[in-house]
């Protein structure tokens, strides 16, 4: 394995790690929080499922991180920061921040309605990213499509929380 291949592997690993940084910080904050102030009904079920959901979220963050690496490499091959790849990576960054914000709103601010509104925006930017990533490299768009299926499931859970509470 030559140096270039090692660099490409390291880039891919970093791209998969970056989306999980925000998630890791939220996990650390959740584990420091004892949930005593949570006023939700069915609190025990939410707390016990939360870490399973976060684990799955981590897997899907790795998938979209890998997809972003594909887009980044395509941009890198073009040798410029213009066009669709640039737009895709900017929207991707915004999407990640909104995605991290959902957990903060839901867990720490306990505002289920605002969390759902955030998730709707996350879904819309996610669908937009499928189109952008697909235009850069179809495989990246297909990988992001898997994440949208996950987002649909999470949005449904958020709606159920809203109805229950």
UniProtKB/TrEMBL annotation:
Membrane topology: Multi-pass membrane protein
InterPro entries named among the record's database cross-references: TspO/MBR-related_sf (IPR038330), TspO_MBR (IPR004307)
CC per GO annotation: membrane
TM annotation in the entry: 12-30, 50-72, 84-108, 114-133, 140-164
UniProt keyword annotation of Membrane present: yes
Chief location of this protein within or outside the cell: membrane
Gene3D superfamilies referenced in this protein's UniProt entry, alphabetically: TspO/MBR protein
Keyword terms of this UniProt record: Membrane, Transmembrane, Transmembrane helix
Biological process, per Gene Ontology: tetrapyrrole metabolic process
Localization (cell): Membrane
Family: Belongs to the TspO/BZRP family.
Record-given protein name: Uncharacterized protein
């Amino acid at each position: 394995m030559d140096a270039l291949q090692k660099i490409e592997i390291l880039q891919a690993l970093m791209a998969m790690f970056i989306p999980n940084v925000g998630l890791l910080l939220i996990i650390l904050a959740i584990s420091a929080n004892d949930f005593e102030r949570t006023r939700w009904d069915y609190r025990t079920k939410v707390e016990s499922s939360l870490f399973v959901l976060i684990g799955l979220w981590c897997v899907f963050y790795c998938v979209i991180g890998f997809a972003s690496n594909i887009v980044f490499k395509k941009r890198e091959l073009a040798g410029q920061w213009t066009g669709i790849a640039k737009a895709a990576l900017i929207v991707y960054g915004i999407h990640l921040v909104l995605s991290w914000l959902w957990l903060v709103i839901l867990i720490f601010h306990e505002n289920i309605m605002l969390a759902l509104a955030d998730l709707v925006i996350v879904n819309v930017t996610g669908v937009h990213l499928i189109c952008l990533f697909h235009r850069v490299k179809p495989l990246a768009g297909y990988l992001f499509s898997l994440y949208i299926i996950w987002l649909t499931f999470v949005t449904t859970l958020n709606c159920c929380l809203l109805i229950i509470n």
